[in-house]
Amino acid sequence: MTKTLHDSVFVRACRGLPVPHPPVWFMRQAGRSLPEYRKIREGVGMLESCGRPDLVTEITLQPVRRHGVDAAILFSDIVVPLAAAGVDLDIVAGTGPVVASPIRTAADVAGLRHLEPGAVGYVDEAIRMLLPELGAVPLIGFAGAPFTLASYLIEGGPSRTYLKTKAMMYGDPDLWNTLCSRLADITLAFLRVQVNAGVSAIQLFDSWAGALSEADYRRFVQPHSARVLRGLEDAGIPRIHFGVGTAVLLGAMGEAGADVVGVDWRTPLDRATTMIGPDRAVQGNLDPAILFAPWEVVEREARRVVAEGRAAPGHVFNLGHGVMPETDPEVLTRVVELVHGLR
Ligand code: 1CP
């Protein structure tokens, strides 16, 4: 990694080092809130676009050019490595990932193949195209954590209740652990490709882990996520771990081996820091819905987030979850400018 990237405001904040201002990026900063994204995606399916290095490069750069964010995130999806490992799935517009034959039995789990790095060669290629374009702007690689990936595979698509997922977890813990162990292998292989290609940080998304109690998270989920995060320790780059509705899980998610814990808007960052401990940075946590309020409200809330983030050893400014498609992109740009002016 070049000295510039190692010294970037984003990586420094992840490490709890002094920075001139909090770095800013937005989850789902590349996506439907941008007219240039909607234009380039016209007639191209989501999975197809993730497999085309030219499109990945352009879409990843769009929010960097427009908003002046302090980090780029690779344009891809958490189900990309599953598709590359042979799972028959699609990303359906307006819905999300849909799996043709959900995984529910021991035979289904046994049929889940390992991810060969060559099967995601287009990700390696896209990152190598991106790095010179990004210059001093760090690139974040990412993957889905075993629980969140398992939820799509078992439910067959997005879920509100995770009933079938929990049925396997509680009803057949051995099968659950076998499945999550295979998913941890796939996730590690996918992240390793991105690390080898030169990303400056990784984010492990366990978006739906907030559906669990702390005890069940520690028992059924944390060991698998920990294997992924600790498996990347040798990479020497910041590891961010994020989920939604994880107020009671923040300590356990940090202990899984994260350098930075992502926090949603429900938990103030100063309170989150008390739960996470003094040796990890935090990321977050403006409510994405606040971006629809009058600017005075956006400004007040963004200032509050920055003030509360000072309780942590390091703070990466972000939303508490992804940018909503209807967001006015000009408000995002203004938020970046505002936070860059705050110390
Ligand atoms: O056609 C489209 O534009 C579809 C919308 C879309 C986009 C832009 C999907 C479908 N995925 C993506 C890209 C994506 N997915 C990124 C790009 C980088 C960026 O942030 O700019 C990232 C990081 C993801 C990760 C992802 N996919 C997560 C974890 C983050 C989160 O939001 O919690 C999850 C849960 C998914 C699954 C998924 N893919 C797409 C959708 C709509 C969903 C969620 C479905 C659900 O509600 O369960």
Q: Could you explain the architecture of this structure?
A:
By secondary structure, this protein is α/β, with parallel strands linked by helices. The protein has one domain (3-340): TIM Barrel. It contains 16 helices and 9 strands. The chain has helices at 3-6, 9-14, 35-41, 46-50, 53-67, 80-84, 106-110, 121-134, 146-155, 163-171, 173-197, 214-231, 250-255, 269-276, 295-309, 329-340, and strands spanning 72-73, 89-92, 96-99, 139-144, 201-205, 239-242, 260-262, 281-286, 315-319. The strands form 2 sheets. It has a 7-stranded parallel beta sheet. The chain has a two-stranded antiparallel ribbon with strand order 2-3. Helix 15 (295-309) links the parallel strand 8 and strand 9 (315-319). The longest helix is centred in the middle third of the chain and has 25 residues, at 173-197. The two termini are 27 Å apart. The model has no long low-confidence stretch (mean pLDDT 97). Coproporphyrinogen I binds next to strand 3. Coproporphyrinogen I is lined by residues 27-32, 46, 73, 75, 77-78, 91, 93, 96-97, 142, 148, 158, 205, 207, 322. It is an enzyme of class 4 (lyase). One of its GO terms (molecular function) is uroporphyrinogen decarboxylase activity. Substrate binds at residues 28-32, 77, 152, 207, 321. This is Uroporphyrinogen decarboxylase. Its main location: cytoplasm.
